[in-house]
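Q: I'm writing a short methods note and want an example of a predicted protein-small molecule complex. Could you take the sequence and the SMILES for NDP and return the bound structure as C-alpha cells? Please keep the output block clean; save any remarks for afterwards.
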Amino acid sequence: MVRVMVSGACGKMGRSVLNAVQQDPQLELVGAVDLHAGSDIGDLIGIPKTGITVQADLVEAIVSAKPDVLVDFTKPSVVFSNACIALKHRVSPVIGTTGLSDEHKAEIKNLAEENNTAAFIAPNFAIGAILMMKMAKEAAKYMPHVEIIELHHDNKLDAPSGTALGTADMIREVRKSMQQGNPDEFEKVAGARGANVDGIHIHSVRLPGYVAHQEVIFGGLGQTLTIRHDSINRDSFMPGVVMACKKVKGLQGLVIGLENLLD
Ligand SMILES: NC(=O)C1=CN([C@@H]2O[C@H](COP(=O)(O)OP(=O)(O)OC[C@H]3O[C@@H](n4cnc5c(N)ncnc54)[C@H](OP(=O)(O)O)[C@@H]3O)[C@@H](O)[C@H]2O)C=CC1
Ligand SMILES: O=C(O)C1=N[C@H](C(=O)O)C[C@H](O)C1
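A: Understood, no commentary inside the block.
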C-alpha cells in the first residue's frame, strides 16, 4: 500500500484526488492539508466520516501521518515550499500545481537527489493531453508554423497554462526558433499576438464554463491542421494521478511529464 497525503485537499482537484485515492485498493489515504482545515475528509467528498481531518500545517501533518507520497494541487505561490518540505521529510511529491519556475524545478531536482527521494511533476495528468502534446511534436517536424490556444475556467491563476508551455517545449525540441507571421506586424493593442515562446504564439482564454482545453494549430501551404484536447471534467486527470502515486517511489531524482511513466 502506498500512503498518500493530499495538499490543496479542499480545492477542485484536491477533492477529486481524495475520491480517487479512496477508491484505489493499492493506495491508502492517510492525510489532507488545506488552508480550510477542520473538516473530516468524508464530509468533503460525500462519503461516511473517515476520521481523517484536514490539517492546516503541512509539517505537522507529515510528521503525524508519515505518508510515502504528497500529492500537491494548491497554487503557484505555495507548491515550491510544499515540495521542499516533503522532500526534506523523505516524502515523494507528486505535483500537479502549475507555475513552478525552471529555478524551482532545478532546486526540487537537487533536493530529490540529496534526500534520495524521487519527485514527480506533470503539467497535465490527462492521457489525452499527453497524446495531443506528442502528436503536436510529431506534426511540428513537418509543419513548423504553429500557434497554441489554451482555454480554461476563469479561476485559473497562471497563464499560459503549464500544458501550453509544456507543448511549446516539446515543439522546440524539433523546431528551431523562428519568426511567424509578417516580420513587420505590430500590435495595435498590447498582447494581441499572445505570449511568444521562441516564435510559438500562445493565446490564453479564461471563461466560466470551461474546464481545461487546448488547440494546437499548424499552418502550411494551402492547409491547416488542428489538434485539440478537451478535459470536460476533472475525472480526466485521475488515472494519471493514481498512476503517479503508485510509480513515484520507483523513480530516481526528478521526473517531469506523465509520458515518462507510460509503458
Ligand atoms: N497537472 C494537472 O493535470 C492539473 C493541474 N492543475 C493545477 O492544480 C492547481 C490547483 O487547481 P484547482 O484545484 O483548480 O485550484 P483550487 O483553487 O480549486 O484549489 C486549491 C486549493 O489549495 C488551497 N491552498 C491554498 N494555499 C494553500 C496552502 N498553503 N496549503 C494547502 N492548501 C492551500 C486553496 O485554498 P484557497 O481557496 O483558500 O486559496 C484551495 O482549497 C492549479 O495550479 C492548477 O493549474 C489543475 C488541474 C489539472
Ligand atoms: O488550472 C487548471 O485547471 C489546469 N491546469 C493545468 C495547466 O496549467 O496546464 C492542467 C490542466 O490544463 C488544468
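A: Remarks, as requested: The chain has a mean pLDDT of 97. The first helix runs from residue 12 to 23.
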